[in-house]
Amino acid sequence: MTKGPTFNPPPGWPKPPKGWTPPKDWKPDPSWPAMPEGWELWVLDAGDTPQAEPAIELDSDPTDSEMPPNELFALKAEVAMLRAQLADSSTAASETISLDDQKILQDIGIYRYHHPLENAAGYRAELERIEVEIAKIVREQKAIELSSTFTFENSLAAGRKLSNDLGKLMLRAYNAECDNCIRSLRNGNPGVAKKRLEASRKAIAKLGKIMEMQISAGYHDLRVREIELTADWLMKKQEEKEAEKENRARIREEKRIEKEFAEERERLAKEKSHLENAIEALREKGERNAHLEENLLALEDAIKQNEYRLANIRSGYVYVISNQGAFGANVVKIGLTRRLEPNDRITELGGASVPFRFDVHALFFSEDAVSLENELHTHFRDSALNAVNARKEFFFATPAEVRDVLMDKVGSLLEFSEVGESLEYHQSRKYWPDRPAELN
């Protein structure tokens, strides 16, 4: 065993050859990992030194024994540095891919139509026209460009035949790639498909360079347009599907409301009949009951209101509610209910799907509640939590901001609460486990 201090490399440093001593003014490579606090570079017995992990083992080479130890260690250190740089570049590449994927997701979030048309049928008709034009270009042999002077085995005819055969093969490969791109399209991501098709076109031009072979610009532009139209068509179909779903839900809601009003009409009619019979019986005895007569007047007023709402199905209550425990501060839901008891709807919303009940900031009755709700949604559209699905009615806004807009549209409000009680939420906070402040 060698007496005296032995060099003890920290974790992640290259392991020096036995007996190595650092040259004058030697400094560790700045790319190496930092030494742990309190680490001793020189120890009396390296075998007894605790190490968190083994030093990096460098590839051995038959010439190691023939090279001076100091020079050998310097070379190994350089290899370690290059490996670290290679690892960093690989990490950067993977991060770039991740960022590209994130960009695609952002593009999907807010879709911009490449060729705006009125409905899905319009896109389908335009796609059929594109298909006819594609077939025409292929028939006229304008889809791929070839050299007419390429020779094969000193024969111009053989060269043209080879060019034509290879051109057909390349065009078939290009069309197959385009069809695969279209089949793999999802709502809102044509960018990836267009990049794939452009890469296919460049590959064909590179492979067919000797024959001056390339997919014609006109044909490529047409197929790119086909991809964009297909993406637009898929998105428009999805929008129409969502609109139809919303329309069916609206019809179901209107039928349910009509049934509820009809049942209320029947109940009120029976109650009115009982009161009228009771009052008539007292009248026959020469008696009067002021309380029963007041109840009858109130009942007749309720019947009129019920008939009015049955005839005006667009009337209802616009509500502004929040749930700080579920969605955080400064988030409100703006909705509409036609129920006779609007609080029943709010109670349903605060059911088992959310941890706390909703706080009610406003319940405003409107003869045209549908239009009022739409106007409020339009005003706060840019603040919607869900930028894709407009049927989700949550917005980043304070109750006071909604109040100002509501007053501007209806003139006055009898009652509006700017601050919600959130009683259950505040009582529960003290029992919560510790967690990052931003989650509170």
Automatic annotation (TrEMBL):
Biased composition (Pro residues): 7-20
Keywords: Coiled coil
Superkingdom, natural source: Bacteria
Region (Disordered): 1-38
Pfam (any one): SNIPE
Domain called Bacteriophage T5 Orf172 DNA-binding: residue spans: 326-409
Coiled-coil spans in chain: 234-309
InterPro entries named among the record's database cross-references: Phage_T5_Orf172_DNA-bd (IPR018306), SNIPE (IPR025280)
UniProt-recorded name of the protein: Bacteriophage T5 Orf172 DNA-binding domain-containing protein
Organism: Sagittula marina
